[in-house]
Amino acid sequence: MGVEKIILDMRDKRLLSYVLKTAVDIDLFEVVGNDNLTLEDINGRYNYDKPMLEAFLDTLCATGFLEKVESEYRIPTNERRFLLKSSEDYKLGVVGVTFTYDHLSELEKRLESSENIIEHDGNEWQAVTNATKRFVNPFMSLVKDGKIGNIKGAWIDVGTGQGSYLLALAAYETDFKGLGLDTCYEVVQSARENSKDYVGEDLSDRVRFSTEDFMQIDGIDYDTVMFNNVFHVVGYDVANNFLMKSQEFAERVIIQEIHKKGYENPIAFLADLNFRMSLPNGRVFWKDEIESLVKESGFTKIETMHLPTDSKGIYLTVGCKE
Description:
This protein is of the alpha/beta class. The chain has two domains: 3-98, Winged helix-like DNA-binding domain superfamily/Winged helix DNA-binding domain (Arc Repressor Mutant, subunit A), CATH 1.10.10; 106-263 and 280-320, Vaccinia Virus protein VP39 (Rossmann fold, 3-Layer(aba) Sandwich), CATH 3.40.50.150. Helix content is 43%, strand content 18%. The protein is built from 14 helices and twelve strands. The strands form three sheets. It has a seven-stranded mixed sheet, sandwiched between helices. Strand 2 and strand 3 form a beta hairpin. Helix 7 runs parallel beside helix 8. The longest helix is centred in the N-terminal third of the chain and has 23 residues, at 3-25.
């Protein structure tokens, strides 16, 4: 067996493990039990986004943990003794532990705090973490190609993390200032430190970071609001409130988000579903849903483009006022 096949097999097994862990974490097999249940029956327990839940259930069917007869889902009879807690042969106790929101927040802090060094390579601004290399540089390539439009002016970045997007923009364009908002104090402190020495330049006079509530911000001095992978965490209603707030002062919104349609492999789509479902309002959006939210909030000139990275489900939606 070649190395490439081994790596791909490991990847697929890891992705499938996320799907199975999600089913265990939400007690799906206990909900189904010995019954035959429709999508509506199951969603009555969870009240999730129906298309997302259906994709999840169908993936479990494709992998043999469930089966679908007409419009009803059930656990295969021969497999019930391994999947139901009441059975002496129950096997799912070995599948991980449930991650609470607090656990995920702590993990996020640890990951973010490792991103303290910024490297400069030619015209590319790269933080040491792979996430920033994968997302910030592709974003900056769209900026340099003129796909985002004029970047001069003042931006608010909601969900700024380490501030890498704002700092890259400020390093690229001198007539730029930004306000980065994040709910995590430790992350904001790290972003402030980064701004004092970003590829050898002190940008702290043009880019500041805060834990302020976006809904309470007086945005009169800002013309662009960017939402950086925020919507899938806060859910539909809060996303709508954010956009309505933005239209009070901004001429443009930029939403970087995961889109369901971007995933070619349904298991790949579900790989991080365990994270999304563990959040109170977490969900993944269809491209049309985000564009509709943007349009309804008053930004009628809309363009959605793929972020040129290896993560095929990441898109930018740019909405401008006419």
